[in-house]
Structures are given as C-alpha cells and as structure tokens.
Amino acid sequence: MLNNWLKIAFINYKKNWLSTIINLFGLTIGLTGFMLILMHWNDEESYEKWNPKKENIYAFQTHNKAENTYGNNISVPMAERAVKVIPEVKDFVLFNGSGMGYKMTTKTKTVYQGDGMSVSESFFNFFPFKLVSGSYKDALKGDKVIALSTKAAKNLFGKTNVAGETVKFDNGSFVVTAVYELPKENSQIKPEFIISPFEQMKNDKEQWGNFNYGCFFLLKPGTDVEALQQKFYDNIFLYRAKINAQGAGVTPVKYLELYGPTGSLFTPIDEIKLHAKASWFGTGDFKTMMILFTLSVLIVVLSAINFINLKTAQASQRAKEIGVRKAIGSTKSNLVLQFLLETFVICFASYLLSLALTELLLPSFNKFYDKEIVMNDWHIYYYSFAMVLAVTLISGLIPATYLANFKAIETLKGNFAISKHGIWLRNGILTLQLIISSFFIIGGLIVNSQVKHMMDKDLGFSGKQVLLINFSENDAKPWLKYERIKNEMKKIEGVADVSYGEAAPGSNRYSNSNMDYMDKSIFAQHGSMDYNYLQFMDVKLKKGRWLNPNLASDTIANVLVNEAFVRKFGWTDDQAFKNEVRPGFDNKPYHIVGIVKDFNVFNPRIDVDPIIFFHYRETEWKRYNVYNIQLKLKADDIDGTVKRIKKYWQNNVEPGYPFDYYFVDKKFAESFVKYQKQQTLFTILNAMVLMVALLGLFALSSLMIEQKLKDVAIRKTLGASDKTLIVGLTKQFLWITLIAVLISIPISYYLMNEWLKDFAYRIDMPVFPFVLSLILLLILTFAVVSIKAYQATKVNLVKYLKYE
Predict the structure, then answer these.
(1) Domain MacB-like periplasmic core: where (predicted)?
(2) For the chain, what are the domain ranges?
(3) DSSP characters over 174-225
C-alpha cells in the first residue's frame, strides 16, 4: 500500500511539476530563514551555560519605578549589607572595571596586556574556571595580587606554571596567585587577567551613594526572587534612605522617590545576555529577537498556505481518482494518510535542501552578526524537524480532509465542482497570504523611513575630523598629563585644535548623580570638560554664555546645562539662570550661566539626558577621571596627520601602550549598525515573503485559469476580445488583493506604531507605505495573473470545443 501511495505521489509531482517546484522552493526558503534565526536565538541563550552554579547566580539591577528606568550598578555597603541581613543571599561579587589594559613587565620582557577585569575577592566562587597553576584560596585577597589566563601567562612568561612569579605595573609589583583556563563556551565574562580593587573598595565601604560597581549575587537554592526583591527594598534601600533622609529633611520613602532607586530586579546569569533590563556587560534585545523569529515563522506559514491553496486547486485533477478509490473500498482515513504522505515527502525534501542551504549561508550569517555559530546543536535539528512536521500537518491535513470528503458518486459523475467550499477555502487562505505580504511591505518601508530619519537627524554636534585618543597608562594625576601634552600636540602638523570632554559622543562612558533644587531632584549626566570643549564640538549655545577661564567664578562654581536639564526641572530659560543647583558630587551650590542646545551622546534611539557641563578642575575627584584627549584635524592629509600623532604618542606620551584612538563621527555611526542590520534583515525577509507569495499566486492562478479554459474557448468563439478575457480572469484576484490590503492596514498601523514607541526620535506614521502597499500588490497581482490569463486567450478552440 505504501509503495502504491508513493508511486501515485511521484506521478502527481511530475504532472504538476510547476506547483511541486514552487512548494519545494518556498518551503526551503522558509525553513532556511527559520533555522538561521533559531540558531541566532539559541546562540544568544547559550551564554554562561557552562557555569555549574548558574542556577543560583543572579545579576543585580536597580529600578526607578517613577521613570521606569533600569541601572546595573550597586554600592559596596549595599552589597555587604545584603549578605549580612538577607538569609537567601550567600555571597556577592563586585565588578569595578572591565576591558582594562596595562603595560606589564616580567624578568624577560615588557608587554601590553588587555582584556582585564577588576573584581572583588569572591570572583572564583562564582566563576570556577579550570585551575592550571596556583590556588583560588585568597587568590584575590589584597591589593597587589593578580590572576592570569593561560593565554596571558604565555604572553608574559612563555609558560603557564607561573604561580608565585612577579609582574610589575607602573604603580607597583603584583604577585601571580593563580593561572586559569577560560571556558571555550559562550560567555561574556572572559578576563585575560584579574586584579582586585582592594584599596578602592576599602575606601568605598561607607559610600552608600557610590554606585560604581556591577554585581552578581549567589542565592540559596529555591529562593523566591520576587520576595527577595521586596526584602531588598525593606532592608537595603530603606536602610540607606534612613541614613541620608534626615540630612535631606525628608522621610525615607520620600528620599527614595527623589533619589532612587525604588526597586531591584534579579536576572539569572544565563539570561543576562538577552533578557537583562540593564547589565554591566551590555543590555540584550529580546524584543528584536522575537520580531525576527516571528517573521521567520510567518515565511514558513506562507509556504504552508501555498501548499493548501495548490492542493485544493488541484482537486479537479484528483476527483475521479478519489471516486474510484472510494468505490473499491478505500476509507476516508486511508485517503487522508495518503495525502499527508504526499505532503510529508515534499516537506522532508525541503528540509534536506534547507539544511544544505543553511550550511552554505552560515559563514555570511556569522559575518553579519559577528558570531561563530556551527550546526552542531541537536536543538536546531529537533525544532526545525518539528516545524517540518507541523507544516506537514497544517498544510497537508486541510486539503487532505477536503479531498477525502468528496462523494464517490458525485466525483464519478463529474459533479464535484458544484460545492463552493473549496473556492471559499482557497480565497480565504489567499487573502491571509496577501495580508501578510502587505504587512511586510508596509513594515519594511516604515523601518527604512525610521532608520533614515535617525541617520539624517541633526545630532547637535559635529564630530567630523575629531580624533579621540583614550589614555591607556594608569597615571596618578591624569589631568596633569592632559595639560602637559595639550600644547605639545597642538604643534603637530595638521592639528587644528585640542580639547577634552567626559561626555564624548561614541565613548559610551557614563557618569551621573542627583541634581537638587529646593525639594526637587533630577539625575543628570556629568560633562566635565575643558573650557573650549562645547565650541570645539560645534555645539550651539541657546542662551547665556560660554565658560570663560579668565573669570574666577567660572573656575569655581559656574556651569552650563543642556535644554533637557532645564526641561527636566520644569523651568523656563530665564528661571534656570536665577536658580542654583546642588549636585550629588559636591556640597556647594552651582550657578547656571549658559544653556546649550541638546546634542546626542549615545545614539538617536534614546532621548537626550540632562547634562551639566563644568570644568574638570572644579571638583576634587573629577580631575582624576580625565581619560582622553581630543584633536580636531585639518581636512588636508588626514592620514599623514594621524601617523604623526601616533608617532608622537608612542614615543613621548605612552611608550609601550597601544595607540587607542577613533574618529568621533565614525564611532558614533556604529550606534546605527544595530538598526541598519534590522533594516537589512527586514528587507531580506520582505523579499523572501513577496517571492514565496507571488510564486504561490502564480501557481494558483495557473491552476484556476486552466480549469476555465473551456469557458474561455466558448467566450472567444462568441467574439470576446483578448482584453476582456484577461480582465475577466484577473478581476477575482484583484478584488482579493484589495480586500487583503484593506484588512492589513489597521493591523500594520498598530504593530508598527508599537515598534516606533521604542524610539525617542521617531517619525510620524507616514501614509505613503500604506498607499504604496496597495498599489504595488495590485500591480504585482495583475502582472503575475495576467501572464497566465494572456496565455489562456491563445487557447486552441478546437481542442476544447470538439466534443460540445
């Protein structure tokens, strides 16, 4: 029986070769997209899975409920108190620095070693890397100890058995306590060397408001995380508020409302890559992942729709076969199983082709996402094959049930076409397919418009020809280093101007604190800078004046703020000049002397933060955070100027350190890459959807028009023109397209409006994509269907009328 079913299946595949190819092609494309996005998702979810303690390690995030914003930092006393007073918390590890690099000297050589971390002493209790040399006990206890990866140990000593050896830094000698091997699996935490911020943490033990640390907590198994978050509010946040509230003259609850944070959030360590609201190691984007996955599933659904439509359209060709089989005793269940088998053979063939195509496209996909995915995870095969079975059932069961329900006597008499259920089914499913296609066209055009809008937006500054050089060497007084080299670097041929700014576009450096005025407080970003920095970056002055180094007040307690700062306080510009603010980083009041136009420091998706600008010498501690020097280059011979700067830097400023620099405009442009990739993927998926939908439409229209060839022959004999016949054959499809687009418009409007809500600077919903979607789909539908309709007008009249 199975052998007969397969023979019948292959006869039908050959007979309907066009629809067979279209089904194969559509499903192969759909399954390939599904597998690539599934592998991408699976890769993002695989981070930190290697860690044997992952079930009980949670990343800590703060939550400001009033503004619904999240932070990733904590202070030392908050973490220490959590272990003391909350039974569920067993231990904590703090991160004070990552991506660090130093010039290190051993007995035989001096090398620059990067990718280091500064962490608290319990690090190896959380991340039990394989120990190669030394011991993890007290490995990070003390200020002058260092642990090395096997790679760093070989780089410094040429071997890995180096526990007890000494490494010299610019600020002293460090003893190697342990050598470890980093995991080969995906992880965001892969330090090449580890040091302890022992002295800094000792100084910060009483600094409740110094949120300079990232944190993981080790919890007891079975901890109720929601209950833990409430305990953090009661025992940590309120406790801190009680300490500070009295001095502020408010209640502890009011203090939290003003200064926050008002809540905490705990995310399992193996979910932070994709699901964390905020993380020391970067925030994931699960929403985008779900959008991509949903779109890939929709393409597979479109392929299934093609299957259903083509199978039901072929009903006339299978009617007599079904009638004969029923007449000789075949049951309905046997017929359903036969048709399901025919569908499965096509689906399985598509699955095998999609595996080959996925392997072929994987290198390009990896390059696109900067990944190293390989097809060695059984989950990929399991879920993709499950999708094949689902498509088989969905796209096979509907037409199989429809065909199996033909009555034997009706089909043998040739009266099966009387029922209109098949026509309604095909039209309904075709409408669904065109609704999805219309959504993709509308969505693609809106995504393109939004990305273009962000890229064309006036950012409020000019980073063109501005070269930023990061300080790599650990100087005791970095501001003096800046002041020493500033005038010397101005003398380099091709350098037009020199300055320094903390809030530099593209740097991703962020430092903020509360700004208080009477009973109101806001958080504002710090913009410590040289006097000329805002003019240097071509930031526009809205009102007031610039800071002037010749005015004594400007060197002590005068500041500039941006428009967002003024808006946040609810002031007018004139009110801002009359009021004084007290920043959380100082006890004295600061007077606003100028308001600058907003400019974007991070990326144009998010709103501009309130920023307060002041000279880096105004505060005792800010001068220690001077971390870069910025140079504006003359337009001619930029490459030659960069070479001269590099030579000077490596010979006179930081010998032995890498020349760590970037052009501000190019670095800032990298913030667009994520959205450009979304745009590219949406365009590719859009093209795939249209291709699958139009091929399905062509095959369906071919089958349906073929069934009307006798009608065409009769009408042509009676004098109908080719134009009249083509319009008559295409009219039904054009009406279906019109209805589909009209249905898709409100759906597309709602979904795309939700997507646009994530952007602080967004376009107004345009009308153009909706109109273009209607026009484009009508044109494409007419073009696709009219090809077969035109061929139908050339029908051989004798062939269809000789028996009439």
Answers:
(1) 20-231, 434-647
(2) 56-275
(3) EEEEEEEE--SS--S---SEEE--HHHHHHTTT-TT---BEEEEEEPTT--H
